[in-house]
Write a structure and sequence with these properties.
Blueprint lengths: L2 H15 L3 H4 L12 H6 L7 H10 L10 H20 L4 H6 L14
Length: 113
């Protein structure tokens, strides 16, 4: 994983959890610098938008071909922001946005590829 993508991933997880990413995602030579996705998911707040969580996990894929390019990440974040702001304006919640407008975000980053 290149240094820039590691930094982006660290930012996403610190924003999502408001925790030190070094403690949240212990990575070292002993674990092959791999991420225990199930352990990390258990520590994520329930109210975090599902699509933001999935984006963060896509960014830490070991195979660079499975990670989205930054141009797609930026476009995706803009769409996610619009969906969440629209939900807020209409009195909805992030969970409501996930069930409603955020469905348009499914597959945007190549999760299904």
């Amino acid at each position: 994983m290149n240094l820039l993508m590691c930094s982006v991933m660290a930012c996403f997880f610190e924003i999502i959890t408001r925790k030190d990413v070094g403690k949240l995602i212990p990575r070292n030579a002993q674990n092959g610098f791999r991420v225990n996705e199930a352990a990390v998911r258990r520590q994520l707040p329930r109210d975090c938008p599902k699509h933001l969580v999935e984006l963060a996990f896509l960014c830490i894929k070991h195979d660079p071909k499975k990670r989205p390019p930054f141009t797609r990440i930026i476009l995706f974040l803009k769409k996610l922001l619009k969906v969440l702001l629209d939900a807020k304006k209409s009195g909805g919640t992030t969970e409501g946005a996930e069930k409603g407008g955020a469905k348009e975000l499914d597959g945007e980053l190549g999760e299904d590829e």
